[in-house]
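Here we describe the complex-level prediction in full. Unlike the single-chain runs in Section 2.1, the two entities below were treated as one system.
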Amino acid sequence: MREGLIVFVTVGSALALIYAFVQFKRIFKFSEGNETMQKISAIIRLGANAFMKRQYTGVAMFFACMFVVLGIMAFLGFITPFVPFAFLTGGFFSGISGVIGMKAATYANARTAQAASESLNRGLRIAFSAGSVMGFTVVGMALLDISLWYILLRYVFLPTFFSHITSEAEIISYITSAMLTFAMGSSSVALFARVGGGIFTKAADVGSDLVGKVEAGIPEDDPRNPATIADNVGDNVGDVAGLGADLFESYVGSIVASMALAVAAGYGFSGVIVPPLIAVVGLLASFIGTFFVNVKESADQKSLLTALRKGIYVSAALSAIGAYPVLAYALDFANHPERMGVYGAVISGLLAGVIIGYVTEYYTSDHYKPTKSVADASLTGPATIIIGGLSVGMISVVIPVIIIGASLMISYFLAGGATSFEYGLYGIGISAVGMLSTLAITLTTDAYGPIADNAGGIAQMAKLPEEVRIRTDALDALGNTTAATGKGFCIGSAALTALALIVSYIDEIKQRIPDTWESVLRLEITNPQVLVGLFLGAMITFLFSAMTIRAVGNAAQTIVKEVRRQFSTNTGILEGTSEPDYATCIDICTRGSQKEMIPSAVVAVLSPIAIGLVLGAPGVIGMLAGATATGFVLALMMANAGGAWDNAKKYIEAGNHGGKGSDPHKAAVVGDTVGDPLKDTSGPAVDILIKLMSMVSIVFVGLILNFSIF
Amino acid sequence: MREGLIVFVTVGSALALIYAFVQFKRIFKFSEGNETMQKISAIIRLGANAFMKRQYTGVAMFFACMFVVLGIMAFLGFITPFVPFAFLTGGFFSGISGVIGMKAATYANARTAQAASESLNRGLRIAFSAGSVMGFTVVGMALLDISLWYILLRYVFLPTFFSHITSEAEIISYITSAMLTFAMGSSSVALFARVGGGIFTKAADVGSDLVGKVEAGIPEDDPRNPATIADNVGDNVGDVAGLGADLFESYVGSIVASMALAVAAGYGFSGVIVPPLIAVVGLLASFIGTFFVNVKESADQKSLLTALRKGIYVSAALSAIGAYPVLAYALDFANHPERMGVYGAVISGLLAGVIIGYVTEYYTSDHYKPTKSVADASLTGPATIIIGGLSVGMISVVIPVIIIGASLMISYFLAGGATSFEYGLYGIGISAVGMLSTLAITLTTDAYGPIADNAGGIAQMAKLPEEVRIRTDALDALGNTTAATGKGFCIGSAALTALALIVSYIDEIKQRIPDTWESVLRLEITNPQVLVGLFLGAMITFLFSAMTIRAVGNAAQTIVKEVRRQFSTNTGILEGTSEPDYATCIDICTRGSQKEMIPSAVVAVLSPIAIGLVLGAPGVIGMLAGATATGFVLALMMANAGGAWDNAKKYIEAGNHGGKGSDPHKAAVVGDTVGDPLKDTSGPAVDILIKLMSMVSIVFVGLILNFSIF
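The structure predicted for the assembly as a whole is:
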C-alpha cells in the first residue's frame, strides 16, 4: 500500500513542470530593452541554438551507437530488454532540461539588463525567475522520468510480459537496473554538455580576455572584441545547459542508486520509494523557499545575497521537517523504531550540503582572507598569484573532505550500519538524496549566475549608462558567489552519489552470481586488483582533466589568433567604425568543442570496461573508489582555485591594489584566465566522470563477469 | 647458514663508503679557479653550512621529543625497547649522508666551473665524481645501518637479553620492527631536509628570478642580485642534501618493508636477507656502471647524456644478471623451483624504474613534443603557458601509473600471489627493492645536476668567459634532464615502497593480535572506515602540497621585497659599484624554511595517529592507500609540469620564439617560477609524506589498536 505513494512523485513532477512553465512565460512580460539590446540578445540566442543543434547531432550519433551496443547486449542476455530504451529516455530528459533552461536564460539576459536599469531588485527578480525555470524543469523532468518508468515497469510491463517474475527482490532489481541505465543516459548527455559546453565557453572567455583585455586594453564584453559574443553564448551553453544536465544526472543518480540499495537492505518496495519521496518533499520545500527570495527596491548587493541564502536555508529547513512524516509513514517507524536513524541520514546530507556551500564561499569570496591573500599575491606578479591560487584551492579541500567523511560515517551508523552493512549503505545513499533534495532552489541560484553575467555583457555592449553596468556588475559578482557555492555542492553530492553507485554495482554483482560472488568480490584494499584499480582511477581523473584543459587551451589559442587577425586586417574594428566578425569566433569554439568532446567521452565509457576486462570486478571497484576520492579533491581544488582567482580579479577591479589597468590587475587577469578552464571545464567534467564511470560499470557488469582475465 | 650472507651486506656497505671517501678526496686535487671563484664558493659553503646547522638544531629538537614519546611507549609495552634507539640511528645515518653529499657538492662547484673552462668532459667528470660521493654514501650508510642492526639484534641483543624469544617468526618480527623504526627516523630527517631545503631553495630561486630577471632585467646568477647567493646555497641544501635524505629513506624503506614481508610469506631468515643482498648486487653493478660514464674530450652535450645513460643501463643490466645467483642460492631455487618467480619481480622493478625514467624524460625534455608545446603556448602569454604546463603534467602521469600497476600485478603473480597472498606481497616488496637496487648510480646522476647548476652560477658571478658559461649551461641543461628522470624514479619507487609498508602494517597487526585481527581488519573497500580513510588520504596530499607551496610563496614574497629594498636604497648595487647584502637573503630563506617545516612535520606525523584513533586500523589503511595513489599522481604531475616549464624556458633561451628578453621568454619565466615550488618542494615532499605516514602508522600501531573509537 505504501508503495502507492509513488503517485505523489508523478504529481510533484507535474507541479514542478507547471511552475517552470509559468516562470518561463513570465519572462516575456518584461521589456527586452532598446533595439541594440534586442539585437545582441538575438545574436546570442542564435549562436547558442546553433551550438546546441550541432552538439545534439553529435550526441544523437553517440546515443545511436550506444543503443545498438546495448541492444546487442540485451539480445545476448547480459542486460534486461528495457535497458536500451531506458538509456535513451535518460538522455532525452536530461538534454531537454538543459535546452529549456538555456532557452529561458537566453530570453532573460537582455530583460535582466533592462530591468537592472530600473532597480537592482528587478534585475534580480527576472534573473532569478529565469534560473528557476532551469531549477524546476530539471527536478520535474527527473522525477517524471523516475516515476513513469517505475509505474510502467511495475504495473504494466512486468506483469504483462514477464509474469513469471514474482519475487519482490527480482522485480525491484529489474526496475532499478533499468533506472540505473537511464541515469547513465542522462550522465552521458551531461558529459557532452559539460565538456562540450565547457570547452566552448572557456575557449571564448580565455581567448577574448587574452587579446581584448590584456593586449588591446579594451574592457570585457566590449562590442569591438570579435570573441565577445562567443563568450556570452558560452555562458548559456556551458554554464546553464551544461550545469542543468550535470545536476539532472547527480539528482537522478543519487535517487536511483538509493532505490537499488533499498533492495539489498531488505526494505522492500516501501524502502524503494523513499528516495523519490524525499525528493518530492525537497521540491515542495524549494517551491516555498523561492518566495523568501525578495528584497526591497533599495536593496544593495549584500542584502541580495542574504535574500538568496534565506531562500536556500528556508528550503533546507522545510525539507528537513517535511521528510520526517514521509519517512515515518513509508518506513513504518511506529513498528520499526530502529529505522528512525534513516531520517538522521537525510539530515546529515542536508547539513553537509549547506556546510560545504558555506566553506566554498569562504574560500572563493573576496570578503574573506583566502581570496584576499590571492589578490595580495598579485603585487609580486603573475607567478605568485598562480602559486597563491593553487595553494588556496588545495587547502580548500580539507574541510569538505572532512564533512563528507563525517556525513558518510554518521549516515552509515545512524541508518544501522553496525547491525547490518546493507542498512548502513542505504543510509549513505539516503544522505546523498537528502543533500540533493533542495536541488530545485540551489540550481535556481546557480543558473541565475550566468544569466546575470550575460546581462552585464549586454549592458556593456549596448553601452547602457554607467549606473546600469554597476548594477549588473553587482548582480554578476553575486552570481560568481552562488556559482562557486553551487559547484561545491555539486561536487559534494557527486562524491556521495558515486559512492552509492559503487555499492549498487556490488549489489548488482551479488544478484547476478548469487552463488559465486564471494570468490569474485575480493575487495580487500590489499588485493592487487583493487590496489592497481585505485591507482588507475586516480590517474584517470588527471588524464581527463588534462584532456579538457588542453582542449580549452587549443581552442583558446585559435581564438586568440583569429581575434588578432581581425584586429590587424580590419583596423576599423578597434576604432569602432566597422563591425567585427562574431560568427567566425562562435564557429571556432563550436568546432573546437565538438572535436574534443569525443575523446573525453571515449575515455569515460571505455576505461571502466577496459579495466574491468583486465582486472575484473575488484579492479573496477578499486578504480571507481580511486577516481571518486581523487576526483573529489581534484574537482574541488580546481573549482575553488578558479573561483578565488576570479574574485581576486574582481577585488582588484573594485579599486584595490591599483585597480583596473594596473600591473596587479594584469597579473590577476592571468590568474583568472588560468582558473577559467579549471573551474568551468575540467572541474565539472571530472564531477560527471566519476558518476558516469560508475554507471557504465553497472550497465556492463555482465560483460566483465563473463570475460575478464582475473 | 644462508643467513650468514648478511655479512656481505656489511662488506658491501664498507666498500661503498670507501669508494665515496676516495671520490671525496679526489675533488680536492682539482683547482678551484681564480680568487673570485674561490671566494664565491666559500660564501656558498658558509651559507649552506649555516643553514644545515640551524636545520639540524630544529631536527634535533624534534628527535628529542619523539625519543621521549617512543621511550614512554616502549616503557608502556606498546613497542619493543630497541625502537627509540633505532629511530635515532635512522635519523642520524640519513642526516649524515645528506650532509656529506652536500659538502662534496659545495667543494666541487667552483672546481667544476674551472674544469669546464678546459673542456666539457672535465667539467662532467668532477661534477659526476662529487655526485657519486652522495650516491655511494647514501647506499653505504643505509646498508651499514641495516646490517649492523641486524647483526646486533640477531646475534647479540636478542640472545643476551631476550633469550626467551626463540621462535623464528618472533625473532624476525623483533628485528624488522626495530628496523622499520629506523626507516621512520630517516624518513623524518628526509621530510625536514626536503621541506626545509625545498622551501629555502625555491624561495631564493623564485624571489631572485622575479626581481632580477623580470623586473631589473639582469641575467640569472648575476652577482648584482642580492638573492643570487641564496639561490646557489639552495641548490645545495635542497637539491643535494634533501635529495640524499629522501632516497636514503626510500631505499631503506623498501628493503626493510620487504624483509618484514618475508616473515609473513614464510621464507624465514633466508627470505629476510634477500632484499639487502639484492641491494648489494645493485651497488656493485652501479660501481662498475660508473666506469662507463666517460666521453671524449671533444664531446658535445648529447654524447654526455648518452654517457650517463650508458652508465645507468649497464648498471641495471648487471644488477639483473647478478641478482639471479644470489636469489637462487638464498631462496634455494634448486629445491624450490616455484620461488624463481621472485627473480621475475626483481626484473619487473628494474624495468619499471628504467621505463618511468624514460617517460619522464619524454615529457620534460625540450627535444620532444610535450615541452615544445608548452614553449609554443608562451606565444599567447603567461596564462596559456601555465595551462599548457598543467595539462602536460597531468597527462604525464598516465604511462607511469600503468607501468607501476603492471609491475605490481606482474611481481605479485610471478612471486606466487595466486598460490598465497603473502607470496605475492613479498614479490611487490622485492620489485621495489629491484627498482632501487641501482640507486648508487641513479642518485649520482641526480646529485650531479645541482652541482652543475652551481658551477654555472659561479661562472656567471665570476664573469668567466662566454664559452665557459656555454659549457656550464650545457652541463646544467643535462642536469635538468637527469634531475627530472631522477624525480620520476624517486616517485615511482616511493609508491612501491609505500605499498610494501602498508602491507607490513597489516602484518604487524596480525602479529600483535593473532586471535582477533580478522574482526579488526575489515579491509573491504566498501567498509566506510576504509572509504573515509581513502578520502582523507587523498585530501592530506593536497593539504601538504598547499602548505609547502604556500611556504615557498610567502618566503619568496619576502625575498622579493628585500631585493627591491636593496635595489632602491643602494643604487650602487645595480650599477655594480657596491656589493649587495647577500647574508640577509640567506637569513630570510633560512628563517622562512625553519618556520614552515614544523607544521608540515606535524601534519605528517599526527594525521595517521589522529585518523587511526577515530577510524581505527582500517581507516589508517584506507588513508595510506588513498594518500599513496593520489600522492603518486600528484607528485608526478607537479614534478613533470615543473620540469616541462623549466625546459620550455631553456628552449626559448636557446633562441626559439624570440629568445631571451622577448615576451614569450617573460611568459616562460612565469611558468618556470610557478613550476619551481611544485617540482622541487611540494612534489618531493609529498613523496616522503606517503612513506613517512606509513612508517608512523606502523610504529604507533599499538596505540591505535588499544585506543581507537572503532
